[in-house]
Backbone:
């Protein structure tokens, strides 16, 4: 009911009112009684659409997430690790996503940069890392990484035996295969700014190690 009228009666009454008005009066009537309502309806519709899109994006399957630490990755490299990786896997961008954090820098003059990165490692934000010597040493210190000798299958492990970088864990003193040296790969030469060693590290949750291994294979096949 609207002002004691059914919706149909209300519509008929409004039509009658409008039929008795000239163009200028109709415009004034609309501005006075309906303009604010229309603006409100449009705003609500936009918010609802934004909410639906946002929920849809957040519900997409996260295939893999990587972080590039103390290493400059160009725009083409970010696309290679993101959009092109989904294309390589023949996965739809509507239902899947690949995360890449291309600019993680550990600054000795900014202790917070270490604190933030350590917190991200602790909550398994990254399935893999691409980093330099400094970044590798810090990840080893936090012990938030996988032993590649136990993660890679025997065939891949053998193929990369001369590229494995071993480091000792601080807590236990155990030596592990902490990284793969990818400095001389086509990927690093094309997408990474020259200047030092480039390593691939597997981190994050153990049940997601396979996603990082697949990314490593993709990079090596470049």
Residues:
């Amino acid at each position: 009911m609207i002002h004691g009228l059914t919706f149909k009666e209300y519509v008929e009454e409004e039509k009658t009112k409008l039929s008795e008005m000239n163009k200028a009066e109709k415009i004034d009537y609309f501005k006075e009684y309906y303009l604010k309502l229309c603006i409100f309806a449009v705003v609500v519709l936009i918010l609802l659409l934004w909410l639906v899109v946002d929920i849809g994006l957040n519900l997409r399957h996260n295939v893999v997430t990587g972080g590039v630490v103390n290493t400059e990755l160009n725009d083409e490299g970010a696309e290679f690790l993101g959009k092109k990786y989904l294309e390589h896997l023949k996965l739809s961008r509507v239902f899947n996503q690949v995360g890449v954090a291309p600019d993680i820098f550990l600054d000795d003059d900014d202790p917070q940069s270490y604190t933030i990165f350590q917190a991200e490692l602790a909550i398994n934000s990254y399935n893999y890392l691409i980093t330099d010597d400094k970044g590798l040493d810090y990840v080893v210190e936090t012990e938030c990484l996988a032993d590649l000798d136990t993660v890679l299958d025997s065939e891949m492990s053998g193929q990369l035996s001369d590229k494995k970088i071993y480091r000792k864990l601080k807590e236990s003193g155990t030596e592990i295969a902490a990284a793969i040296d990818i400095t001389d790969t086509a990927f690093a030469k094309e997408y990474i700014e020259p200047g030092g060693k480039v390593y691939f590290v597997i981190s994050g949750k153990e049940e997601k190690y396979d996603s990082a291994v697949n990314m490593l294979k993709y990079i090596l096949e470049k």
